[in-house]
Structure formats: structure tokens, C-alpha cells
Design brief:
The protein has 107 residues and is of the alpha+beta class. 24% of the residues lie in helices and 30% in strands. It contains 3 helices and 6 strands; from the N terminus they run ααβαβββββ. The strands form 3 sheets. Strands 1-2 form a two-stranded parallel sheet. It has a two-stranded antiparallel ribbon with strand order 3-4. Strands 5-6 form a two-stranded antiparallel ribbon. A hairpin with a 5-residue loop joins strand 3 and strand 4. The longest helix is centred in the first third of the chain and has 11 residues, at 6-16. The termini are far apart.
Length: 107
């Protein structure tokens, strides 16, 4: 478990992750994040998530052993590039529910 953010923020992610918004963009949009990190539910706690958001780093948590899985027909493969430049393929839903309706995922 990370304790408030030292390993993540001060470990170099703020300097290493490409494509982050600049300070003017962050100031103009209070919901905009620099980038997103993903934790299983046991890897994150409220103090970590709060510390990350203070640095405008988004966080996603998930539950292990989920019972309601996405049907295979609703998933598609997407190639992603890690900050290190390594490329890998992941399965993602074709659509994500959002506050403003459904978001289509472009491939």
C-alpha cells in the first residue's frame, strides 16, 4: 500500500508521464487530471486518493473477484503505450457510462 503518495508522486511519475495538461488547462478545468493511476481496492485508501488528487492525479479503483463481468461481445482490444514506451494490448468496453450519457471508446 502506498502511503500518502511519496512513492507515486515523488517517485517520478509527475516528471515521466507524457501528455499532461499544463497549469493553465488545469486552472481552467477543476475536474481535469494530469494522468490516471489504477489500484485494486486493497492498494488504495482515502488518504492516498486525496493526496493524489491534491496533485491532480486521477485514480481508479476496482474490486477483485467481481461477479458481474462485461460480456465478451461488449469488449474490444486496444493497443496502449506505457510511459516507458512499451506497448501492450488490453480489452476495454466499447462504451462507458458517464454523467453526461454514454461515452464511445475510439480505437
Amino acid at each position: 500500500r502506498f502511503e500518502p503518495c511519496d512513492d507515486v508522486v515523488y517517485g517520478g511519475l509527475l516528471e515521466q508521464v507524457p501528455g499532461q495538461p499544463d497549469e493553465a488547462q488545469l486552472a481552467a478545468d477543476p475536474l481535469l487530471h494530469r494522468f490516471v493511476v489504477i489500484f485494486d481496492r486493497e492498494g488504495a485508501n482515502h488518504s492516498l486518493l486525496s493526496a493524489l488528487w491534491e496533485k491532480r492525479i486521477g485514480a481508479i479503483t476496482y474490486r477483485k473477484s467481481v461477479e458481474n463481468v462485461w460480456p465478451e461481445a461488449e469488449l474490444g482490444e486496444v493497443e496502449v503505450t506505457h510511459p516507458s514506451g512499451e506497448r501492450t494490448t488490453i480489452n476495454v468496453p466499447n462504451q462507458f457510462p458517464s454523467r453526461s450519457g454514454s461515452l464511445n471508446f475510439e480505437r
